[in-house]
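Q: Structure tokens for this one, please.
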Amino acid sequence: MNKILVFLLIITYSCSSDNQSVISHSDKVPDYSEIRKKHTQYVLTHNKSALKESYSLLKKNSDFKTNGLSDSNKDLVLPIYMELKKYDDLLDLIHESRNLNEYHKTFYDNYITYLKFRCIEGEKATFYIEKNLSLIKEKIKSSPNDSSLLVDYFFNKVLITNVDSLHLEIDSMKKNRVGISSEFYDHVLKESIREFSIQIPDCP
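A: Here is the predicted structure, written as tokens:
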């Protein structure tokens, strides 16, 4: 599985901590189990037929057909569409969603648009990551001790910035911020962004 897609899975879960998530009005928990099985099969085996089947099952899923992309299914829907490079379709889902909070909608809109243009219009792609960085900074102001927002910030910024300069920024941030351990900065954040930077694929 492409590491740049793994990044989205990481930020999907970190964004899930946002306390403004939209709550479903239905008491019934949607069933995505078969789709998850097929998608997991693809992740483990890289079998494209399993990925295509997970997409086919998703399109037939009654909850997805009714509610579209939501905070409750984004961890599955986003990677399936991304791995199939259905960026325009995914952007339509994001724009039409009534079940994503505004932070998620803007965040994913920017990130998917970055992926769409990354290898064809680099300057335009960078613009959308910069928009995400501004968005995350504003969020950090209201939740300064939320480590997941720092993950979001640096895993976006490493897409457009040298990793060594980011390590300097992390060191500076560590000195001026309380509530988050030094171990997190040194052994989680630094190591993760360095590993991720190595795995970012080159454009063809």
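A few notes: The radius of gyration is 17 Å. Residues 103 and 135 are 8 Å apart (CA to CA).
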